[in-house]
Amino acid sequence: MITEDKVMEFLDMLPKHSWLKAYVNYAKTKTTSPAAYHIVCGLGCISACTPSNVGLLHAGASPIRANFFGVLVGRSGDDQKSTATGIARRVIREAQPHRLQPNPVSPEGLKESLAEQPRQTLVYSEFGDFLTQTKQGYGEGLKTTITDLWDCTVVTRRKAKKDENIEVRDPRLSILAACALPFLTEHTTSTDWSGGFFARWFFIHAQRERVDSFPARGKKTNEGQILAGELAKKTDGAHYFCGEIEREAFELWDQWFKSISCRKLPKIIAGLRSRIPTHALRVLILLAVDLGYTRTHSWNIDTLLISLAIEITEMYVSSLQSISESLEPDEESRVRRRILEYLKDNNGFGSLGEFIREYRYPVAISKMGIDWLACAGYIQKFTVSQSTRDAEKDDIIMKLI
Question: What is the pTM assigned to this prediction?
């Protein structure tokens, strides 16, 4: 989990002319959301306004572009995730309003939207709703389409009632989302994390530390409009692809890359390891736009860009690790965790009947969870018979060890 002190250390590394630095400092005055959220939202703003012809052409098998999928993860209500994304939304709307588009409900709708506006940004104030809608059935197609668009894959669709195809050759989709940690816990499985979808999202997990009873003291300022204007100027005009990486910068990158390759990660998120360097390079591109590198033809990657990109990406890695502590790989694991929480909330004692009534889990899977916990030595269980008007029924009494 990313602390305020960690963010302040990073901000000190940014040059004075950094737009991202100014954005984070501005957003901090408007809300007590974790400052780490504003780093992701600031990168999202830059991504939303960055021209298509910016990226790294020779950093892998395919070009790496400047689009960005960022997710703010925290407690529901307490950490003001939606407030943070709301500030970013307003800045993007002021800078380039046509970049913001309505959130799609189907893959076809997204493809048609991209045909009209190939460069666009979506903002999900509650990403949990999206995860619920796309968990199965027709919604899965939208998840697949978004996964492909992270790589800026060509979008095609054939209209059923018309003899024509929709084709978007150079799409740029960026997304900012806010998600309560319980949604990730309850609505995702190990397959979601080991597969390709979540590997494309830049998660930041933080909790609110600052307290302010009246942010900005209610003063009306035009600082947000000024920031939006500066962002529009920064991203307007000619921008260019990267030329090469300088020797010292490569040595720094290579050392970090090798450390990531052998770093021990929790099993449930280990499948995301291969995408971590790509996330770092996307962040690097956005920082290059922010700091004016991309204004120079065939600009070079230097140690400053590498250092800054690594610092932000390490926040992502730390967030994955703290998020993984709450994740369970399957439904059975979630039931077992819920049984233990139930017992702790009830002074170490409870029954199967009360647990089912409170949490609405099926009887069969609840019994499996109790049996597993008893065999593993977490609880003791006792079967008791209870008389009813019609017959006797068995219930299971649980005691936390």
Answer: 0.87
